[in-house]
Structure formats: structure tokens, C-alpha cells
Recover the amino acids of this structure.
């Protein structure tokens, strides 16, 4: 029993899964067969906005396959732990598996090492998981783009990070977004910033209102985004007190007040 | 030299004596269900003793520190690989203790050429209701027992019995709240420790464990030791249900100066 346990004292969950043969390594592309990734369809819109108490995430709920609408209640905003949210656009199956991996990886580290994984450590772990997904992504399958929102307890503020499919990480000052709808509404974010002031000074209600409006515009311009008409989006925020679930009632209230 | 069955029996007896001798002086651990979750409590010098294993699973024990560490990491490894490969709902106390941990401990105990585990461990699993909470006590020979409502590990099996008497008093009515659970767990700790180290108590009987005697003993012990208590919180919305209780949460149940 002892020798089976002596290999993994670093709290590295991937090392544990590899040692036990449980880590599903995507197969490498044989030389000569690699091709440029097909234009990935990331049909959806997910939005992360800073606000006064942290970061608000709102996600459209439509799931598509080519032109077909498969599902209109997908959850694309998920807690990784009490201070970290992930918003996903792209291959849902692969994303869900990696989210499950990340959730366990953070918990595993905290429980074995008796200290929380640092924010830097968590962000690097996301990069590593994306890089591990690369060979599949290069074949044009299983690619997804996450936006990670975290509450930085040391600095006492919310922070937003976005990634590319290879795992490169960038920090965003005010907002982040991913999915096919997000590209079409980029300008709207800047318009709000320049006319109404920075998002990080807004109250939760103000930030929610902007998010719903942004999602509604995205739905007008992007067929893979359902918007807010039929099914209300998923909304969660990350704050100093942990994850805040925003209820359907709260969303319905704000939707009513919008001039659509 | 021929190794005979007699030698085997003899060596097992020696091992048992050796282990129990070392366990006798250990700091007991009390476990009890309350309305808002599950509580584990012990007293310690400096080293932390109660640990989170998984979302609804925690553990503490007495004995050799490095043996406890092997069990702790083994349980965490198994719980997380199962939770990832299947689902968090498939990580249960009976799978972790019964299949992942106990067989290795039994093997180590039976293998006379290697050192056995010098431990008694207590695992606690939180259910949706107090009725569904489960405790498993695990012995140095790999034997384990499952219990509802309360459980204890201590220096001797007799001391453990005394602890359970304190944890589930005859006049108890209904599911305790956290304060009551803390109070009972603290009394149980004192009873278990006294019983294991004071040979006279056996002759005097359980009646000699009066309130006064327990309080005096606790006051003495608290000069060198501090209370460590942790809960799994049934109603929290947080991802992490496990929480070490703060000093100000424990202070109200400590005996007055």
C-alpha cells in the first residue's frame, strides 16, 4: 500500500490519473495528416463582466450542431471552486470533461497539500488542460475556448482571464466574452464603457441589465445564440463570499425592465 | 529455520501487544451527527489531526503520524480518481474504507516481515439528513465497523465504549444542535482519555466518571492541549462543505476557569 502512494506527494492530479491509467490522452495526429483546423464553430455567447463585488458571468443556453439547435438549456457557466468560474464556448463534450478535471484537480491539491492552490496555479492548470487538448483541437474536433473569472482574495478584486485554444492566457481589464455571438457584439462593450463608465463600478443590477441587453443583441446577429426571449440565460457571479447564484426571478425582473 | 503456524500466532500476538501499547496513550477522536452536519473533535498539541477527504467525507485518527498520513493520502487519491472517473455520488465511505484502505492495512498487519500500521482511524460521511450520516472506525488490523449517530476511536476498545456512552446519553432527545454536539464530544474525549490511561477506572466503574471529574481533567489537559474540531456543513451553498471550527465557536463549550 505504501509504495503505491509514494509517487504523488505534489498534489498533481494529472500525475495521479496518469499513474493509474485514467487520463485520456487525445491521440496525436500522424505526421503528414495534420491539417489546418477547420473554421471552428463556437456557436454560443458567454459574457464575463466585472462589477462592484466581483465578476458576473452570463451564458446563453443554446447548444447547436451545424445548423441544428440541439438543446436550449445547456449550462455553460460552471464553478471550478468557491472563487473561480469558467465560461465555455466550443465543443461541449470536451469542455465538460476538462471542467470536471479542473474541479477535481483544484480540490485534490487543496486536500492533499492542506492549502489552497494559488490563483496563478489554477490559471496555469487551465492552460495545461487546454494544451493537453491540442492534438485533438488541431484535427478540428474538441476545441473550446474558456473565459475564467476569479475572485482574487489577496488583491480583493475580481479578475477575468481569457485563453486561446492552445492554452495562452490573457488578462482582461473590464470584460471578456467567447463564442460566435461575442465577436459580433465586441463594439457594444466598448460603446457601453465609453458612454456609461467602467463595468467594475456598476452594481449587480446594472451589470445584469447590460449583460441581458448584450445577449439580446448577440441573438439578433447570431443564429447560434438564443438570447433571452424564450429561455433565460444562466447567470452566476464570483465574489469575496464565494459563488453567487442569480435566480430566474432576478433575471425575469431585469428582463421586464428592458426596452427590447 | 522452519517457520511454523505457532510462530505466526506468536508474532501476531507480539504485534498486537506492540501496537496496542503505542495506541494507549493516543488522543481520542469523537464523531457525532448534529442537525446541521457532522462533527469530529479531538485535542492536540501542534499537528493538525482532522482532515477533509472528499466533498462529504472527513477523517481523523490516533497513532503513528506517518501511518495516518499514508491512509489520508490513500483515501484522498481513491476518492478523487473515482469522483472524476465516475461521479462524486459514487464516492462513498463504504467504498473508500472497505475497499480502498482496509485491505492494505490488513495485509500490512498480516505481513510479519514488515511494520504494521499503528493506527485507529475514524471516518465520517455526511448524508442529506442526520439519519443518513455514517461513521466508520478502522482498526490497525484492517477491521472496520460502521455506525450511525456517533462513533469514537481511543487508546483502548473499552475507552471507546465509554466515549459512545457520553456521545449518545440515555436521556438524549432528538438530534443535537452544534453546541450540544460539541459539548458531548468534548466530554467523550475526556472520558475516553481518562479510561485509557487510568487503570483504576475499570474497577471503579463508569459511575466514577462524574461531571466534576471530567471537568477537572479537561481543565488540566487544556493547559497543554487545544481543541480541534471540524464539521461537514449540511446546508452550506459552498462547494467546500468541510470547515475547521474557529476558536470563538469552540470557546463557549470549554469548562470555565
Amino acid at each position: 500500500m505504501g509504495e503505491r502512494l509514494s509517487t504523488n506527494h505534489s498534489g498533481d492530479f494529472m500525475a495521479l490519473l496518469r499513474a493509474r491509467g485514467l487520463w485520456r490522452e487525445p491521440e496525436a495526429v500522424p505526421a503528414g495528416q495534420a491539417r489546418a483546423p477547420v473554421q471552428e464553430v463556437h456557436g454560443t455567447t458567454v459574457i464575463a463582466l466585472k462589477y462592484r463585488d466581483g465578476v458576473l458571468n452570463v451564458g446563453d443556453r443554446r447548444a447547436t450542431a451545424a445548423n441544428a439547435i440541439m438543446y436550449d438549456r445547456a449550462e455553460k457557466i460552471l464553478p471550478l471552486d468557491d472563487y473561480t468560474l469558467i465560461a465555455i464556448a466550443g465543443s461541449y463534450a470536451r469542455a465538460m470533461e476538462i471542467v470536471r478535471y479542473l474541479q477535481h484537480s483544484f480540490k485534490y491539491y487543496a486536500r492533499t497539500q492542506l492549502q489552497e492552490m494559488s490563483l496563478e496555479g489554477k490559471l496555469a492548470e487551465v492552460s495545461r488542460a487546454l494544451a493537453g487538448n491540442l492534438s485533438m483541437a488541431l484535427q478540428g474536433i474538441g476545441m473550446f475556448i474558456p473565459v475564467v473569472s476569479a475572485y482574487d482574495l489577496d488583491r480583493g478584486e475580481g479578475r477575468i482571464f481569457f485563453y486561446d485554444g492552445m492554452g495562452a492566457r490573457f488578462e482582461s481589464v473590464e470584460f471578456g466574452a467567447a463564442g460566435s455571438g461575442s465577436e459580433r457584439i465586441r463594439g457594444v462593450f466598448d460603446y457601453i464603457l465609453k458612454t456609461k463608465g467602467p463595468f467594475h463600478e456598476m452594481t449587480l443590477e446594472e451589470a445584469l441589465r447590460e449583460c441581458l441587453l448584450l445577449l439580446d443583441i448577440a441573438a439578433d446577429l447570431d443564429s447560434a445564440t438564443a438570447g433571452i426571449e424564450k429561455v433565460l440565460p444562466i447567470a452566476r457571479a464570483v465574489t469575496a463570499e464565494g459563488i453567487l447564484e442569480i435566480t430566474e426571478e432576478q433575471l425575469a425582473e431585469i428582463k421586464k425592465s428592458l426596452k427590447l | 529455520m522452519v517457520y511454523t503456524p505457532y510462530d505466526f500466532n506468536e508474532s501476531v500476538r507480539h504485534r498486537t501487544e506492540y501496537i496496542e501499547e503505542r495506541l494507549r496513550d493516543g488522543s481520542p477522536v469523537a464523531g457525532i451527527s448534529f442537525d446541521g452536519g457532522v462533527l469530529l473533535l479531538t485535542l492536540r498539541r501542534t499537528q493538525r489531526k482532522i482532515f477533509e477527504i472528499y466533498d462529504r467525507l472527513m477523517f481523523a485518527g490516533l497513532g503513528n503520524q506517518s501511518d495516518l498520513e499514508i491512509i489520508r493520502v490513500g483515501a484522498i487519491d481513491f476518492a478523487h480518481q473515482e469522483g472524476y472517473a465516475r461521479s462524486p455520488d459514487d464516492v462513498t465511505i463504504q467504498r473508500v474504507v472497505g475497499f480502498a484502505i482496509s485491505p492494505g492495512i490488513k495485509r500490512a498487519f498480516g505481513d510479519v516481515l514488515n511494520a504494521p500500521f499503528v493506527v485507529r482511524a475514524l471516518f465520517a460521511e455526511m448524508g442529506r439528513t442526520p439519519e443518513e450520516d455514517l461513521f466508520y472506525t478502522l482498526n490497525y488490523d484492517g477491521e472496520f465497523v460502521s455506525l450511525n449517530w456517533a462513533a469514537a476511536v481511543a487508546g483502548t476498545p473499552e475507552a471507546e465504549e465509554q466515549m459512545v456512552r457520553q456521545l449518545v446519553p440515555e436521556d438524549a432527545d432528538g438530534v443535537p444542535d452544534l453546541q450540544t454536539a460539541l459539548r458531548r464530544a468534548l466530554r467523550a474525549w475526556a472520558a475516553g482519555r481518562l479510561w485509557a490511561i487510568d487503570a483504576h477506572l475499570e474497577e471503579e466503574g463508569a459511575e466514577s466518571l462524574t461531571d466534576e471529574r471530567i471537568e477537572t481533567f479537561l481543565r488540566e489537559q487544556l493547559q497543554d492541549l487545544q481543541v480541534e474540531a471540524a464539521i461537514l456543513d449540511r446546508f452550506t451553498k459552498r462547494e467546500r462543505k468541510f470547515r475547521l471550527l474557529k476558536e470563538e465557536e469552540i470557546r463557549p463549550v470549554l469548562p470555565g476557569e
Remarks:
- The radius of gyration of chain B is 18 Å.
- The longest strand of chain B covers residues 37-44.
- Residues 65-85 of chain B form the longest helix (21 residues).
